[in-house]
């Protein structure tokens, strides 16, 4: 005997239920399907490609109108359920009741906006269904103005994602240094980080990966010997090369980048959105110190960031002890003939060697002598290689009004 089955919610879960029930016995149920959205089942996971313009809604539809008609499913789409009477076994929609023998409620979750300042601003939209996606596409089509302060990897990549999501946005990046100027040497990615990059921007992924240096394990050089640790896979690229790839990609998408221009006050910016990717001394964060609520601390060790004119096989930590103190070097190759080489020591060693009173050339010479067994004839390379104590920064809030901070402006991670 055919039973009357009423299903509330036409999402992916109920869609699979209908498929399984029909596969088991096509005549077992007379199905009525309610859905508040004016459409049936589609792959909600694929809404991001619809938002970015890489797919259309039609390409992510799971069950079409023809499919429902073929399966004899009565569709009441665009209709809210207003009452359920369990005693009478009826479900009442906006257009009237329907009786059921069995009832399945698959309405999923409801989006929630956290109660932060700015949640009621125009353009703040929840992101759960096609209507939300279309609302964001419509809002983006109106244009608007956004500014990213900071032309490092975080700022440039943010600009790229903004441009892809909102092609009509007027987008400017301000970078205080000239094009091609950068500090440090290499950038390391785990294999998983590269997977994320490939999903978000296959073009950048495919541009940087052919020239990357790769290794799987990590190595510890200890005073008593060497230990190899099974790793998760790593790759590295030169910091300057990576920045140039991101710069070219952003410019190719129509992002306006102003090199050699320092922003000294947020008041000089005409923008609907201001993104602070401006590092540890962020102007955006300092302008709204109380609102972002930063918490500061400093680690006691000292470090200096060098390069080395030789490659190392893996990401390596080398620990050495001299008569005057203990050192650690964190090093890895980022080109076939160059490596990052970060020297670290505790405060007692730093004072014993007198690094505070040395110029960069003197301290580089000492570090090169200390790590001679590791460098094996290679030289240390300087690039603003001054001694620092690593700052620990964490902001309680990363957004305030139309201002957002990210990267080192919001939190420090490691060197």
Question: How would you explain this protein's 3D organization?
Answer:
The chain is an alpha/beta fold and 415 residues long. The protein is built from 13 helices and 24 strands. β23 and β24 form a beta hairpin. The mean pLDDT is 92.
Concise overview:
Helices cover 27% and strands 32% of the residues. It has 415 residues and is α/β, with parallel strands linked by helices. The strands form five sheets. Strands 12, 13, 17, 18, 19, 20, 21 and 22 form an eight-stranded mixed sheet that branches.
Mean pLDDT equals: 92
The tally of beta strands, per DSSP, is 24
- Helix/strand structural class: alpha/beta
Mind summarizing the main beta sheet? 8 strands, mixed
**Shape field:** elongated
Continuous helix count = 13
Strand residues, percent: 25-35%
| Low-pLDDT sequence parts | none
Helix content: 25-40%
Radius of gyration: 29 Å
Distance between the termini: 69 Å
What's the helix and strand layout?
Elements: E1 3-8, H1 12-24, E2 29-35, H2 47-52, H3 65-70, E3 74-77, E4 81-85, E5 90-93, E6 96-99, E7 102-105, H4 130-141, E8 145-149, H5 153-165, E9 170-175, E10 186-190, H6 191-200, H7 202-208, E11 213-215, E12 218-222, E13 225-229, E14 234-238, H8 239-252, E15 256-259, E16 273-276, H9 283-287, H10 289-292, E17 294-308, E18 315-322, E19 325-335, E20 338-345, H11 347-353, H12 360-370, H13 372-375, E21 380-381, E22 388-395, E23 399-400, E24 403-405
Parallel strand pairs: 1-2, 1-7, 2-3, 8-9, 8-16, 9-15, 12-18, 16-24
Antiparallel strand pairs: 4-5, 5-6, 10-14, 11-14, 12-13, 17-20, 17-21, 17-22, 18-19, 19-20, 23-24
Helix pairs in contact: 5-8, 6-7
